[in-house]
Each structure stands twice: as structure tokens, then as C-alpha cells.
Design a protein that fits this description.
- By secondary structure, the protein is of the alpha+beta class.
- It has one domain: Hypothetical Protein Pfu-838710-001 (Beta Barrel), CATH 2.40.320.10.
- It contains seven helices and eleven strands.
- It has an eight-stranded antiparallel β-barrel with strand order 2-7-6-5-4-8-9-11, surrounded by five helices.
- A hairpin with a 5-residue loop joins strand 9 and strand 10.
- The chain is globular and about 50 Å long.
- The chain starts with 9 loop residues before the first helix and ends in a 7-residue tail after the last helix.
């Protein structure tokens, strides 16, 4: 999948002090409230400048301030997890494998949202060779059966999401901000793919609704909260047979933000 040309964030990120994974241990936020935002790479340059002035720090892994992520979302043949979200089921799950490319670490991850809007994530280490098929991994299969509504035999790869992630942490270590750029999706069932071009998806992750400097920064730059799921947008854009009515407005919002149409290939 080919995307449009992208802004380089290497120099802007050098203005932020680094933080290591070990230092971030106290803010894993595995039980959290997420607020998502949608913007462009041009606006992200301004966000990073203001974040540096506010004392935010940037996660550095393997000497890099930008980390490639590769995720495979699993679903049933009938796309139950997609439709649970589409049909506004409050309590829902997503199952994925994810590789943190810089470190080579791969995990089977289960995300569950409860009826209070809180997200809990559980995960188990797998081999990177198991990203597309972990059925032979007995501990992983037992983990899935014990922490989700599904068994490994019910699920197959549905869609891939690949992106570049920047992670910021505030100076008080009370919140984490993930910033995803260069987003690209591929549907394993239809073989269609799409790039989100210069769209940027930001997630502010907190254990509660405490005051946040970043919320003020985003407000000042007119970056508004938006409810968006990478997996659901991927299916909406790459599966012409799926019922996607609820998410089409999300696609239009992305196109309006970037000022361009999203085209599958």
C-alpha cells in the first residue's frame, strides 16, 4: 500500500526530553478512559511544539522517537466484533495480535470496553511468526478462551493496521498521549487496502478525567474529540459487502479533515 508524502517529525521530536519504557511503568493505564482526536500532520507540528513548551516527554525505544506498529485484527466470519461496535453495543471486545516493530516484541491482545466507557486491555506474549495464526500456541489459545468470549477456532485474520506511533507523557506522569501517523489498512478477506494519507489519530489515555494540559493545547488548535476505531474504519473502507452506515460519517470526517478522498487499492 502506497501512501502520500509525509512530513518528517524527527527534528520537532528532538525538542522533547526523552523517557524510557522503564520510566513509564507507573502509567501503563491498562484500565483507562481514552479520548480520541483527529487532525493532520501540519497541525501535529504545532501540537509537538506546544507539547515541548509544556514539558511533555517523548518515549524513546531502541534509540527511536517514532515506532512502527503492525496489528492484525481478528474477527468471526460474520464480523461479530465489528458489528457489536457498529450496533452500539456498550460492552464489546476486540482481539488482535500486535508487533512492536522496533523491539520485535509481539503480543495477543484483548481489549474490552465496559458500559462505563472504560477500556481494559490484557495481553500475552507470542512469537512474531504467530501474528497471522496463533492456533498452535496453547498458552495463547488458553489466554484467549479465558479472557474473551471467543476461542481461537472461531476467529481468523480480518484486517491489518500499520502506522507510525509517537508516544508523549506529561511531566507529572499522569497521562499518556499516542499519536499515530502514516496509517495504512489492508483487508485480509477482500484484499483491498487504503492509506489515510496525512490524517493523524491521537489518543489521550488517562485513568480518570483529571485536568490535562494537552486537552487545552488541542482545544487551542481547534482539534476536537472524535469517536473513531481503526479497525472499524478499516472494514468500512475495505469491505464493500459489510453494513457500514454508522461509520460512513467517520470516513467523511477524515476526508474533510485531510481535504481529500480516501481511495482503496
Amino acid at each position: 500500500m502506497q501512501g502520500s508524502s509525509h512530513i518528517s517529525f524527527v527534528k520537532p521530536l528532538e525538542a522533547l526530553s526523552p523517557i524510557t519504557l522503564e520510566e513509564m511503568d507507573g502509567i501503563k493505564l491498562m484500565n483507562r478512559i481514552d479520548t480520541k482526536y483527529l487532525t493532520t500532520e501540519a497541525t501535529l507540528l504545532k501540537i509537538l511544539s506546544k507539547a515541548a513548551d509544556a514539558g511533555y516527554r517523548v518515549l524513546v525505544t531502541q534509540g527511536m522517537r517514532i515506532s512502527p506498529y503492525d496489528s492484525v485484527y481478528y474477527d468471526t466470519p460474520g464480523l461479530k466484533m465489528f458489528y457489536d461496535h457498529h450496533n452500539r453495543r456498550l460492552v464489546r471486545q476486540k482481539v488482535r495480535t500486535r508487533e512492536y516493530v522496533n523491539s520485535g516484541a509481539a503480543f495477543l491482545e484483548i481489549k474490552r470496553k465496559n458500559n462505563k466507557g472504560r477500556t481494559k486491555k490484557k495481553r500475552i506474549r507470542i512469537q512474531d511468526s504467530e501474528m497471522l495464526d496463533f492456533k498452535a500456541d496453547i498458552p495463547a489459545c488458553e489466554f484467549l478462551a479465558g479472557h474473551s468470549w471467543f476461542t481461537a477456532d472461531e476467529l481468523t485474520p480480518s484486517a491489518r493496521t500499520a502506522f507510525q506511533r509517537i508516544t508523549l507523557v506529561n511531566k507529572d506522569l499522569t497521562e499518556r498521549l499516542t499519536i499515530d501517523t502514516c496509517l495504512m489498512f489492508r483487508n485480509y478477506r477482500t484484499r483491498l487496502g487504503v492509506s489515510l494519507q496525512d490524517a493523524v489519530i491521537i489518543e489521550l489515555k488517562q485513568d480518570g478525567r483529571a485536568a490535562s494540559q494537552m486537552k487545552n493545547i488541542l482545544l487551542d488548535l481547534r482539534v476536537k474529540p472524535v469517536r473513531v476505531s481503526k479497525y472499524c474504519i478499516a472494514i468500512t473502507l475495505t469491505n464493500p459487502l459489510a453494513k457500514t452506515g454508522r461509520f460512513k460519517e467517520k470516513v467523511r470526517a477524515i476526508e474533510k479533515t485531510i481535504g481529500n478522498k480516501l481511495v482503496t487499492i
